[in-house]
Amino acid sequence: MALGVLALSLLLQVAAAVLALRLVRITGRPLAWMLVAAAILLMAVRRSITLGRGLMEDDAVPPDLSAEVVALAISVLMVAGLAGVGGIFRAVKAAGDEMRQLLESAPEAMVIADDADRILDVNAQAVRLFGWRRDQMVGQDVTMLMPERFRERHRARRAAFHRNPRPNVLGAAADVYGLRRDGTEFPVEVSVSPLRSARGSLVVSSIRDITERREVERAIRESEERYRSLLNDVLDSSPVAVAILDGALRVVWVNRAYEGFFGIARRDVVGQPARTVVKDRLAPLVPEDSDALDRILAAYENNTYVEAFELRVQGNGQERWLEHWSRPIETGLYRGGRIEHYTDVTERRLAEERIRLFMHICRSMQVGLLVYRMDDVDDDRSLRIVTVNPKAEALLGFPKEEILGRRIDEAFPALRARGIPALFAEVLRADDARRVEDFDYGDDRVLRQAWSFNAFPLPDRCVGVVFESITESKRREELLRNLAAGVAAETGDAFFRSLVRYLAKTLGQEYAFVGQVTDEGDRIRTLAICDHGAIADNIEYELKHTPCAEVVGRHVCVHEAGVQQRFPKDVMLKEMGVESYVGSPLFGPDNKPLGLIAVLGEEPLEDPETARAVHQIFAARAAAELSH
After folding, report:
1. Other Cβ atoms closer than 10 A to 331
2. What is the mean pLDDT of residues 180-207?
3. pLDDT range class, residue 490, cuts 50, 70, 90
4. Rounded to an integer, what is the distance from CA 350 to the centroid of its chain?
5. I need a labelling partner for 88 at 20 to 30 A (CA). Which of 65, 283, 394, 605 fits?
């Protein structure tokens, strides 16, 4: 019997050491757990020597192997170690990130569904986690991802969520399971958040496979009676703030991270009622409009469930975002108490804010934006479109759904012959931007135009392409060249006659004239008039009540349509049947008003920008001729 006791003692403590070594791999904290294993083995040797000496005596009584104090230490240690691994989010690097890129780079499976539970989008992690292809999930009911026995409860939760939409965490209490394509079930933790969009109310779910966590928790439960002495040695160095409450909900212990996050010394809270600490110490650090403290206090009143949420605190001279996670202690010395974790997620929240800002900028950009992701860095055929902004839709002439998620050769088949996929791949390899000017492109869907674009590298093997059509600007340049060539050799009255003819023809208008201010300054005497392509006799008219009064001595004036309605007292506009008007002032060397150039049309003006540009360019030449 005595030898059996000795053997059992050795076996239990060696098994605990082996478990600590296993947790080296699970938690990724080799130094801490190697120290734990060494400590346990030393205890085993010491225990064996003690037992051996005791058993030499005839009346030796086998010692008691239970160690409740050690047990709770390991429970706290393992939960905190696990939270340290899974709870601290990596900040998303963001200056050039956007929504599809964000989904694909998320560490957890992401599922976006509408208010009818239809799946709208998933990321690659969701595909790997559930075993379905993306096209097999999109459009299906989200309950396809959960076992049958959970679906009715899910529908009830969904209805409650849409009545009061706010971020929530499901599955932390081990009551939510996922269902893979092959029929296997696995425990999950699901963070759900509401999202308003053009499609209505959406639900964004972040799904984490917590099978490994459950296995670790099971191992912790089996070992929690053995490791109480390790509490201060390991947990106190954790980056996750930890507070332990006893069965009377008094603070038993907090670690150094807790002191740092809240600016509270351990000696000031240990032994105090947790409610008092929350009301007196934490309340001044949390914004008044937050419900975080109410949720903490509610968990104290009904200490039967897991609570998880995020809160903003301003303590110790710094503002932080913390993720609160707490659960009741169900066994051991502090049974009936509670353990609380606070993980710093400030960097993640800042990254999310940068992403929101970036997405807002993308939506408001006045140039097209496409983002490609290169799934295989060695194959430019793997370039896939992950983002299309609204301006890109307008420039390309079709909705983004037609190309979003497609390979570059599917979306724009004629680009490969021009070497564009290879150029994008080179942008990634060289980590340097490229600009292409005057690129002629068109295909079965895209109207052939002249384009210019900039391609630049983004994180996560992505290439951003900002592009615009330069067809109109090239047309304007051609118009200006033709107009300049038509009047270049002329001077004096011949110049003015050539100018008004070319202005009317180039801009497609019925009338154009050049006028000079009379000495009195209240009338205009024309120097040349083009009327439906022919030079007409000059006239003199009063400026008052005409659109020309807004131009002379002032600035360019454009009325794309309805000019008669704006100047009802201008009889000449009505007689000529004028609908649109563009006028540009002429100034002398001393900035003295000389007159104006005006173009008038019987139809609304189709291209006001070109008309404005032409006027501004030739106003200087006309003013120079008038000054001679």
Report:
1. 14
2. 87
3. low
4. 11
5. 283
Residue 533 structure tokens: 């392509």
Alpha-carbon span 595 to 626, nearest angstrom: 9
Q: Average the pLDDT over each of 64-68, 573-577, 583-587 and give the range with the smallest value.
A: 64-68
Q: What are 187's two structure tokens?
A: 């425990």
Instruction: List helix spans (H) across 124-163.
Output: 124-130, 134-137, 148-163
Ranges assigned E (strand) in 424-576: 434-441, 449-458, 462-469, 511-517, 523-531, 534-536, 540-542, 557-559
Poorest-pLDDT segment among 181-190, 255-264, 363-372: 363-372
- Convert the pLDDT of each residue in 309-332 to its tens digit: 999 998 667 788 999 999 999 998
Greatest alpha-carbon pair distance for the chain in Å reads 139
Average pLDDT, the chain: 80
| Residue 486 burial (10 A CB sphere; 0-12, 13-18, 19+) | middle
Distances (CA, A) of 89 to 107, 321, 342, 348, 399: 9, 12, 13, 6, 35
Q: Where are any strands of DSSP class E within 375-414? A: 383-388
pLDDT at 483: 58
Identify the burial level of 344 via C-beta atoms within 10 angstroms of its C-beta, where 0-12 means exposed, 13-18 middle and 19 or more buried.
buried
Among residues 422, 347, 326, which one has the least CA distance to residue 383? 422
Q: What angle do CA 529, 618, 628 make, to 5 degrees?
A: 80
Residue 52's contacts (CB-CB under 8 Å, 6 or more residues apart) are 6
Query: What number of residues does the chain have?
Result: 628
- Relative to beta strand 540-542, strand 534-536 is unpaired
- Tokens at residue 79, please? 């939960």
Question: Mean pLDDT over residues 332-360, rounded?
Answer: 83
What are the CA-CA distances from residue 420 to residues 127, 368, 370, 448, 500 (Å)?
30, 17, 14, 16, 45
Partners of 273 in the β-ladder: 250
pLDDT of 350 above 90: no
Out of 86-95, 137-146, 583-592, least confident range: 86-95
Closest by alpha carbon to 131, among 195, 166, 89, 181?
A: 181
List, in order, residues 6 or more apart from 361 with CB less than 8 Å away: none
Distance CA 360, CA 462 (A): 19
Inter-CA distances, 278 with 241, 251, 285, 336, Å: 15, 11, 10, 19
The better pLDDT of the pair 397, 230 is held by 397
CB contact set of 102 (below 8 Å; sequence gap of 6+) = 92, 355
Q: Which residues pair with 586 in a beta bridge?
A: 595
**229 pLDDT exceeds 80?**
no
State the pLDDT at residue 49: 47
